[in-house]
Amino acid sequence: MLRRAPPDGATRPATMRVEMTDSNDRSASVFVHPTADVESGAQVGDGTKVWHLAHIRSSAQVGAGCVIGRNVYVDAGVTVGDRVKIQNNVSVYQGVTIEDEVFVGPCAVFTNDFRPRAQNPDWTITPTLVRRGASIGANATLVCGIEVGEYAMIAAGSVVTRDVKPYQLVAGNPARPKGWVDEKGEVVSRDVDNPPHQG
């Protein structure tokens, strides 16, 4: 469970140190900006930084070594892996799972409902999975129900409506294959039909 350290004196510190005890009873450190809200019951891993106005809901799990940027919202039940960077103004809603070492650019959008209505008590969450090492560009929109493969790259501003293969580069609205990248994000092929051998 997270325990916030109270601010000293009349002024608030630039960051707050949060102590979390893991299953082996070792103390782990997390930094939470005083304007951020980490609800009771949220799990946040060692070395993670939670910045201005971010909100991590109860039952969310955020791994170790992550950066949670300004105004990021991590919904209840969401799982975020280790060493993930979520840039400013991203909302990660219920049904989204983000594996290790994923980059989510600023203002990227996840959805979780195929038929959203303001008044629909029977709606169901449609899950989205982002595999290890994938990168999602700024202002990209991911329509729910898709899987983004490991080390895939989604260009800025793309609207992703179907699965993205591992190491695939996609761009546009709707996002279409544009080639293949390596683990460093370098384009290694523009042959959209035949991925190069990995490994």
From TrEMBL:
Keywords, ordered alphabetically: Repeat, Transferase
Protein's recorded name: Transferase hexapeptide (Six repeat-containing protein)
A single GO molecular function term of this UniProt record: transferase activity
Pfam families in UniProt: Hexapep
Spans annotated as Disordered: 180-199
Protein's UniProt keywords contain Membrane: no
UniProt entry tagged with the keyword Transmembrane helix: no
CDD domains (UniProt xref): LbH_WxcM_N_like
SUPFAM superfamilies: Trimeric LpxA-like enzymes
Source superkingdom: Bacteria
InterPro entries: Hexapep (IPR001451), Hexapep_transf_CS (IPR018357), Trans_hexapeptide_repeat (IPR050179), Trimer_LpxA-like_sf (IPR011004)
